[in-house]
Model the fold of this input.
Amino acid sequence: MAEKTGDDRRGTSIELTVSGASARVALWDDLAPQTVAALLESLPLEAPLQHCKWSGSACFADVSKGAIAGVSGLESPVVSIYPGVLAVRPPAPGAPGAELLIAYGDAEYRWPDGRRQVTPVGELEPGAGAVLDALAATAAKGRTTIRLRLAEGR
Amino acid sequence: MPKRIRLTLDGVEAVARLNEEAAPETVAKFWAALPVEETLRHVRWGGEAGYILIRKLADKTQPIENRISIYPPASIGFRPEHGEVAFSYGQAQARDHVRPATWACHLATIETNVDAFFAKVRATRAEGGKPIRLAREESR
Done:
């Protein structure tokens, strides 16, 4: 099969699973082509997922392996992470590897010394309420696991 | 003699001294509200701390006494607008979704069994909420 080009990847979906709840994520190839390509190259991906402690209603996973862990720089950088949005913090000084973030409510990417930026890479498709609930539940129940893989019929 | 409270978090006990001289009104209201049984959860905006909400102490008009923004290690902070009591085990600050930094009252400092108590607070992040009881030390 021929390798996909950037245009072919527009509209690519992946499947995200948290605590047994699954939903599709529509990737924003146009906003973040390099980061989305690195994420796709890193699939399937499984990592411990914890609630953020500085950034509000969002969860994060440290990713130290695969192409996404070596992605270089930000694309279409943002600070606010809207509910259902998947974002990536590329490797940074003092923070090797990448961080995968997903928000279920009000969230703003922050470190102890203030706001930072992330690359938004996609958004949960409609009907993802169970995933949002599973993300929110980590505040009360603690750590869980996030799994990402290519969606069937993407 | 300074007022003290006994904290029991998921079976681990510690004693904290209330900062009554620096925060007399806050300590008086807090003392009157004891005992309190709640679930301690990890903060979402403020860093390395756990928190409970004591709804009956929520008062947006109450002045913040003995103000801090960065929580000192082993401190107990109180934010009257929410009735939030925060227990910091590391780098932590009074923050929320609107304000990257705000104020809290330095209500108390934990004096005994500090490491074991804050290990339990830290564990709420990975393990989830844990039961906590706050009571007047004189009542034992």
User: Anything to note?
Assistant: Helices of chain B lie at 24-33, 114-127. Residues 4-135 of chain B form a domain with the Cyclophilin fold (CATH 2.40.100.20).
